[in-house]
Amino acid sequence: MALEPVLSHIDDALPAALDRLKEVLRIQSISTDPAYKANCDAAADWLVADLKSFGVEAEKRPTPGHPMVVGHIDGPGPHLLFYGHYDVQPVDPLELWNSDPFDPQIEDTNQGPVIRGRGASDDKGQLMTFVEACRAYKSVHGSLPCKITFFFEGEEESGSPSLIPFMKENAAELSADLALICDTSMVAPGVPSIASQLRGMLKDEFTIHGPRIDLHSGHYGGPGLNPLKVLGQVIASFHDDTGRVAVEGFYDGVQEVPDEILRQWENCGFDEAAYLNSVGYTRPHGEEGYSTLVQQWARPTLEINGIWGGYQGAGSKTVIPAEAHCKLTCRLVGDMEPEALRRNLRAHVEAQLPVDARVVWNNDLDGSKAAVMNIARPEFEKARGALSEEWNREAVFSGMGGSIPIAGFFKDILGLDAMLIGFAQEDDAIHSPNEKYNVESFHKGMRSWARVLDALSK
Amino acid sequence: MALEPVLSHIDDALPAALDRLKEVLRIQSISTDPAYKANCDAAADWLVADLKSFGVEAEKRPTPGHPMVVGHIDGPGPHLLFYGHYDVQPVDPLELWNSDPFDPQIEDTNQGPVIRGRGASDDKGQLMTFVEACRAYKSVHGSLPCKITFFFEGEEESGSPSLIPFMKENAAELSADLALICDTSMVAPGVPSIASQLRGMLKDEFTIHGPRIDLHSGHYGGPGLNPLKVLGQVIASFHDDTGRVAVEGFYDGVQEVPDEILRQWENCGFDEAAYLNSVGYTRPHGEEGYSTLVQQWARPTLEINGIWGGYQGAGSKTVIPAEAHCKLTCRLVGDMEPEALRRNLRAHVEAQLPVDARVVWNNDLDGSKAAVMNIARPEFEKARGALSEEWNREAVFSGMGGSIPIAGFFKDILGLDAMLIGFAQEDDAIHSPNEKYNVESFHKGMRSWARVLDALSK
């Protein structure tokens, strides 16, 4: 099927596509708040109707929470599963919005026009780039170049409680050759990006116990073992002087970034100084010898997220407290095994403790492996080529410092590799007041998907 | 004046003395709670009347807070100022008391009889040991062997806001040769003790700032500087592996305990193992090479009293917080200068900080020097001899881990050396439910003061 008329159609139909996006943005589908249950349902209904409007066999599918939307449309090429989510984050603090979060408007900015409103970027705007690309194909050619399954959830912003059970129960229906996900950012403005690796996560929490009860530092100050001091020593023991994590076995399963990928990252337009300066840093503080991007995309971390113990009120209290608390998370890369890491981490902490101190662990916190995309599959280079053409610059396989569990679920439950292509900008303010999506992201996003479908069908 | 008849009179009059103690214990003189203002006033009135009943010229003296009681009685010997306080701690949690805290009762225990009630030990019972000794002298001999000024305050348990102004305004009236204070414990049951050194205190608090705002550990985990990690490193830097404080200049002004005092402490009946085990320790955790008592009485400390930062709720939050907080106190001994120590401490913390971290100090917290009693004065050996006779075992010059500012005030404002003799037991539960005072402490306390007055008058 010819690509050029599809791209022209997308250009001509941009105002109509923006009108449709505004329609779905007006639906207040805040998934975490039960008060918006009917709104979530309405968003699912809207999507079902929209998919049906260009020939997709689509259905709203009930779950114990908000419904899924599943749609199928045939085509000659490979079978692709496209995932997105129609639910959005809450809008508070409402007073920080400059306009009604659910009355989307096109606004001119120094980045060009943007569409502003809750969900404009995360994820309704991104989701619709793919839907619109499919619609354009159907309009121009009467059919699609690939077989597509649409799979939209309404609980992504509230922990996806129904996702895994639904995928397990409907594994046959959701089977495909490759999953596509549009919920990520570009590494820099104008730089098309395929997220090729997401870090995993290990969560843990411990309490160091010292004396049986809180003690008075007049009576016991000196001979008394202070768990706050012990916690400080434990925290200090986690890293060596070069920023490397000093837990034995921590780096098991970590690979260095291949030169080819490293070259892409070095040329991806990421402005290291601006990124660091924006939060008050003059240099990166992770492992020596790695750039900021590598530290954040391809190196594991051990991060203290919370500490507390003893007196925290005004003034002073001469207490040696009985307990000190610490929450931490590790970011995982490569083949790091969360539970093996947990054992190593805990053994490390136990080994730091002096006589008369003991540690109690919270056993309710989970872990997930890093997701490393299977970029050896030919679809990845095809898609990269398609994106490079659309954006007139080489697309990059980018890393991501965060964790998106959905990619792992596709692999584990459905045996599906996932390809993450997104057009969001770092400054889209997702989860924050005044969320926006650049009209360029929307427009070129639609065109990008048209090109990707074309490339994958060949 | 003959001592023996005074001691006999004290023995005979014990029931009457206990009745008087019960009377004053029934007065709910909780100084920190404005609801008990009239009760504090009533306690002062009771003391004025009681002092007058045996010929002391006593007056209630107003202050902006609760009144002082000042009384004078003449005698041939040296002029002694006796200090005590008539106010008590609140009684909550009331449900943990086995009897009404303000309905004192004599109770038989395996330590012999005790009088139970709020203030029985701290400080009404202790205060009355001295008053009763004076009364007995007056009954037997018609006069006292020394000139005495009584000085009782009603705000000791609520920060003594009126004490320093009152002492300054009435310095001439409060002048004497030596101050006596009865508000301390014996180092072990049956071991008479003169507190010869109290530790001072330096309070400080700081906040370590890292990034300008809280960061997401997916985005910045790796290159991001985490103030919680920096705080851990700062805390770990405070002590070396032997438990010694590693702050430069920290030990300036610290002297080793003289052998003669050390010998007294080694034989004072202090049960180190029981003291440590009672709170869950198997060994002392302070500076290596010093016993538990020396660590707690005669060595300075740097103690972390509170830490907080980042996420402290349920579950996990992937945050790199902007701030980490730490409260600490140092216990001072010898000639350590609080403000010099503060400068050294702060310089130490600043020196630990990596690039992009900064520290902000709370400048509202004070410090006080250690109080080292002038035991070279002959009165101290006289009193030690008197106590040794009464208790049939050598009295000791004991240290105290805590800080009692009043001794320093007597020195600074009135130029008075203070001698602290007390008969409380470690298990008296002062400030706690079911406070008690051993009847033996009360009885032998009265006899002890009679002997001390006798010894000092010679």
TrEMBL record, chains A, B:
Residues 206-355 form the Peptidase M20 dimerisation domain. InterPro entries: Cyt/Met_Dipeptidase (IPR051458), Peptidase_M20 (IPR002933), Peptidase_M20_dimer (IPR011650). One of its GO terms (biological process) is proteolysis. Keywords: Hydrolase, Metal-binding, Protease. The keyword Metal-binding applies. It comes from the Bacteria. This is Peptidase M20 dimerisation domain-containing protein. It comes from Roseovarius nubinhibens (strain ATCC BAA-591 / DSM 15170 / ISM).
